[in-house]
Amino acid sequence: MGDMPNAATGPRRRADAERSIARIVSAARRCLSGDPNASTDDIAKAAGVGRMTLYGHFHTRADLVEAVMVDALRDGDEALSAVDLTGNAQDALDRLLDSSWSVMAESTALLTAAQGTLPAERIRQLHAAPAQRVEQLIRRGRDEGSFRTDMPITWLVNAVQYLLHGAAEETRAERMRTEEASRLITATVRSLLAAPPDPDGTVR
Amino acid sequence: MGDMPNAATGPRRRADAERSIARIVSAARRCLSGDPNASTDDIAKAAGVGRMTLYGHFHTRADLVEAVMVDALRDGDEALSAVDLTGNAQDALDRLLDSSWSVMAESTALLTAAQGTLPAERIRQLHAAPAQRVEQLIRRGRDEGSFRTDMPITWLVNAVQYLLHGAAEETRAERMRTEEASRLITATVRSLLAAPPDPDGTVR
DNA sequence: CATAACTCGTACATTGATGTACGACTTCTA
DNA sequence: TAGAAGTCGTACATCAATGTACGAGTTATG
């Protein structure tokens, strides 16, 4: 499963094809971000390419969705890797959220598309890298004593993710402006992760 | 749209039919909670009823989904209405979450089913009642001074909802046990809504 | 008990998307 | 510039689900 579009595969592809693939993936990303159920036909059209060309590169729709997810998450992880995570963990987190926010916001629909076609486990794998970054930061914040320690990290990471997702959804539905969402998300996550101010005995 | 299965409609239906409808809705609820894409055929079978009978009562699949949502949300709201919301808002909230948690947990898939078939606006309407309850409680907590006031209530309500959704998802995927989820959810929401302990000037 | 309401099987029309087959035409690339 | 690689249209084969049509058999209910 998944033949040609692997970066690791020998580059026995014509420059031509390379370009087509890029256009297709990018178009797919656009389409699926708008409508999780966009058909291969829609996507091909949006890419300015025949449907057959598309199937020449991606044997199945799932293959395509997977490629798109990989692409989007690579972008995301790239954006995250550019964030300065040194210094005060609280502030670092703010910066991190600011960056992930935009990527996240435009990929909500994409995610649900993936959930419809890819096995849940695969999706998890793909998210591993970015999740890792968040997790590490939280861990550091804990060591610094500025983040709470009374809940498993896994849950905290997930909670942050779900909140981001929610904010993205609200934005998409135009019940919130993007700037407002950004503000609320950081404030919310901040108080979610903050060490409880109440050190009365519950040190466990 | 939506003919027969209205409680308000004159009861010109045979007891027989009434029973069938009940069985169908209940079966649909079970099926859709397991698989958001369950077909009308699956549902009819699960209800121990012919597919045609089903279509006799619900002209379209959407009609059925809608009925199921109404049913589930009525149940939910009923459960909530039984919760004692007097006294300390923090504690009341804990109780409220405890109750909504179980309903929520079993209806996650159902929600995504609805999102696939019903217009977003309709879903919102249906959720209005339970959302109202949460909102009122939050409002009271604010007046008491125990809940934060630096974010719009709408956002807080939504945030809580998304967190619940997330916890439900984690449970479904068996990455968390139900009891643990329950504990984490209350703790998380508690610190999300709590008034910031840091009243240094930012009174606005 | 008579009739209207309900059940439900089989069969079919429809729709919408996926994926395949074939073949002619174009464009890289060696 | 020859031939391999890629493009892409038309057409077709599936497939799965939705919803309709017809009609014979059941069962509530007045």
Automatic annotation (TrEMBL), chains A, B:
Pfam families in the record: TetR_N (PF00440)
Domain HTH tetR-type residue range list: 18-76
Keywords (A to Z) from UniProt: DNA-binding, Transcription, Transcription regulation
DNA-binding region per Swiss-Prot/TrEMBL record: 39-58
Alphabetized PROSITE patterns for the sequence: HTH_TETR_2
Keyword DNA-binding: yes
UniProt entry tagged with the keyword Transcription regulation: yes
InterPro entries reported for this sequence: Homeodomain-like_sf (IPR009057), HTH-type_TetR-like_transc_reg (IPR050109), HTH_TetR (IPR001647), Tet_transcr_reg_TetR-rel_C_sf (IPR036271)
Family annotation (PANTHER family): HTH-TYPE TRANSCRIPTIONAL REGULATOR BETI, HTH-TYPE TRANSCRIPTIONAL REGULATOR RUTR
Protein name (Swiss-Prot/TrEMBL): TetR/AcrR family transcriptional regulator
Lineage, top ranks: Bacteria, Bacillati, Actinomycetota, Actinomycetes, Streptosporangiales
